[in-house]
Each structure stands twice: as C-alpha cells, then as structure tokens.
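Review box. Two proteins, two foldings.
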Amino acid sequence: MLNAKPDAGRPARPAAIRPFHATAAAAAALALALALGACSKDAAEDPAADAASPADAAAEPAVPAEAVSAEVAAMDADALREAASAALREQRLYAPAGNNAMEYYLALRDKQPADPSVASALTDLMPYTLIATEQSIGRDDFDEAQRLFALMEKTNPNAPALPRLQQAIATGRQEAVARTAAAEARQEQETERQAQLERERAAEQQRAQQEAARQLAAQQAAAQAAEEQRRRDAAAAATPAPAEPAPAQPAPTQPTTPARTANTQLIAVSTPAPRFPPEAYRSRQSGEVQVEFVVGTDGSVTSSRVVRSTPRRVFDRAALVAVNQWRFQPVAEPVTSRRTIAFDPEA
C-alpha cells in the first residue's frame, strides 16, 4: 500500500514514487529542475511572453474544463492509489489520456488534498510533463500539448512555465493554420494547372484526330477513284485499239464530213468527258489528243483512232475510251469525224 510513514522532518513519498530518487535518476531530475528554473527566469524577464495577445487568446482553443477524465475522477481513493502506482511502474507518467499517473494523482489530490505523498508525486512528475508538452508543440501535436498543459495547470496554476507554453501553443496553432491554408492554396493551383493541361491535351487530341480523319477520307477517295479508273482501263484494254500512225507523218486534220442530207448530220446525244489519268493528274500534266472516229447508222461509234497527241501516249487511252462511249442521233449512213480533246488539270 501507499501509506508509507514520513521520515523525520519531511513527509514520506509513496512507494511507487521512490524510483525517481534513485541514484541513477537523481541527476536527470536535477537537470530537469534546472531547465524548468531557466524557463521560469526567461518568462520573468520577458513579460510579453507571459501574456498572450487578445488575438492569440481568441485563436487559442478553450482549455478543457477538467484535466482529469470523468472515469478517473469517479474512482475511489484506494483504487486511485493502486492505479497510480501501476502507472508509475509501467512508465505511464502522463500518457495515454485517462490512464496515466498524473491524472490518477490529481484525482487523488481532489479527494485527499492534505496527503503530502500525493503532492510530492505531482511535483516529481511536473518536469517530465513539461518536457512532453514542449515536444508535442515541436511536432505540431497541439491537441496533446493542450492536454498536457491542462495537467500542469491543474497541478500548479502558478507554474512559471505555463504562460510561455500557452503562448507557444496558440502561436503554433496559428502557424499550423497558415501552413495548412498555404498548402491548400498550392494544391488548388496545382489542381487547376492539371485541369488546364488536361483541357489543352484534349483539344490537341481532337484537332489531331480531325486532321487524321480528313487525311483518311482523302486517301479512301483517291483509292476508290484509282480503282474505278483501273476498271475502266481494263474494260478499254479488252477492246482492240487501232494501230497508231507513224509519229513523223501525222494524218492531216480533216474537217467533219459535210452532211449531204439532214439525215447524215451528226447530232450529239451523249459525249461524256474522258477520265483524267491519275498519274498525270497527280503530276499536274496537261495535253490534248485528236481522235478520228466513225459513227454508225445507229448513232454509236463503231471505230476510233488517235490522229495525234501531245504529249504522246499519256492521254491516248483515256481519249479513246471516252470517244467509244459517245452517242449520236441515227444517221442514214456511217459518218467519219475528228475531234480534239483537251486535258487540263486546272479545269
């Protein structure tokens, strides 16, 4: 039990506290006491540090009304002594909340205010709680710092270090809020930047896809035109073409045979234009072909030949294919005629 008899001239401390006065711990306790005294001296020399400004006080969260939890406060004196001794043995000096030696001794002091062993135990625990409070402030754990501050304040409301700790907690909270706001602003800017990049990327991809679609459509149209031309050329190749005249001796231009009667005059019914050769069109090449043809009595072209062409053999086949498709009104007898067909890629 904790009812140890006091030594001569001084009240005895509880058995659970005696480890604090062992030879190995004495030096540490003395150093802590000196540090606490130095902090007290600094606070006394700087009055501004002992009192928080009204703005700081407004920003500072309210100190909990009770430093001791309701569950601890409801325990009886014997249970509190046993719990305090166990907490000391297990090195739970000031944490965790609701299960530490400081709270147990504070609750026991409320029930037995005249017990000198309780007061001595709290005095021994104060330096450690002070260090823990400063460490909590240093790692921005202000809720824990506030809890430990409440323990110290309840233990000794006149402790010199309390104003300094209170100011440090308030200032630290304000700085943490400012850092959080700045981080949120940076995050918002980064989010907007990423959104803008995504919009620009989507627009660029859309433009690229539209251009690719246009190019694909043009390629398909060109391929289809080439395939149609190939079919026409194959059909024209199946029809025997008349022999070409010698290039050095082109046949003289001969006008259309005059119609001897109205029934022999050539009246065109259908004269489709020739198909421009794809290779000549791609190279933007122009030229002309003079074709001589014979129209039968039913109005169809029965034969045709190239009289001359410029350039040679580039447009000959296309001109013959077109002329062979021409149709005229029926005539009384076959009529021979000549026509010059021009090929102009710009037309």
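Next protein.
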Amino acid sequence: MTSYNREQLEALHLVRRQLASMGEEGLAALRRRIDRYLAFRNELEEFLQGRFGDICTEKCFRSRLSACCTREGIIVFFADVVVNALASSPQQLDVLEQVLESGHCGRAQGFKCVFLKESGCLWQVRPIVCAMFLCDPAKERGFGQDPEAARHWAEFEARRKAFTWPDRPVLFDDLETVFLEAGCRSPLMHLHFNPGLRMVKKKAGY
C-alpha cells in the first residue's frame, strides 16, 4: 500500500468509526451542517455537466490525459472525507476501502488516481479540488465567447472559498474541529495543521 493510500484509508476509518458512534441525533445534526454545501455542490455539478461534460469526458477522461485524474494523489481535505461519508452508503464506503487497500482500481485501468474506474469517480461527492478543476483548454472551449458563463464560474469559485478558505469561519474548518474534539487526528486536517492555512486563520483573528 502506498503512503498516499494509507493516509486516505486511515482518514476514512476515522470518519466511519466516529460517525458510527454518534447516534441518529448526532448524525442528523452533522447532516444539517452540510446542507448548504451539498446544495452548492449540486448546482456546481449541474453547471459542469451541462457545459463541460462532453469536453472533459472525451478529451481527458477516456484518453487518460486529464491533468487532474492522472495525478498519483489528489489533494483531499478531511472535510471532503466527512461529507462523502455522510452522502454514501456503507457499501459504497466499503468499496473505497477495498480499492485503497489494494490499489488496483483506477491504476489497473490506466488511471493514476486510485479512485477512478471506467464508469467514473468512486466518490459520491468528489473532493472539492477535483470538482473545481478546469484546465485552460477546457475553459476556452466551455466559456468561449460567453462572458455570462465565465461570470457564473467566478461565482462558484467565490462560493467555494466561503466553505473552504479559512479567512473567516468556514464549514471545512468546522468539520475538522468536530472530529478533533472527539479525539480524531489526521494529516488531512489541513485547516488545522497546514502552516499556510493556519497563518490565514491567524491573520483573520480566529
């Protein structure tokens, strides 16, 4: 098992154990915390599918050329793992664990990303870094001469920061805190342990 797979697997184990210990009331409260974020992600996916679905599928995914999906290890936030776990069935999370343990899913099919298979990503709610990645050629084709579409994308970028960029209280920091206070600790808790992001929080005064 690669160090990347081990790190991802340990985070997933942490999240699953903690969620299993919370009870229905605790889980319901946690799901309410992510409602707005899931609504944002649904809007984002509709936009991407409508404007970039064919472009990205033909030019990158099927050709194995994507600058995102061909990475050995994508950047995953601990909050990504929490959100995906809340949005997934136990069976879907079991599959993620199995491919992380074996490393045979995406890499056996020509993808460098362990989470990919022929039908697409195994995550139910993809990591935000993946969801918001558009290469320059895709932007040129998808936006073209359409300033309204480009403006809409800029709005999505700003909304993403409102959930993830800790220059104010944000959901991704909040979710890390919930699990830290429960005794969980993971290298994926970037908003608490990454020096650059900690400096952002410090400058913001919290």
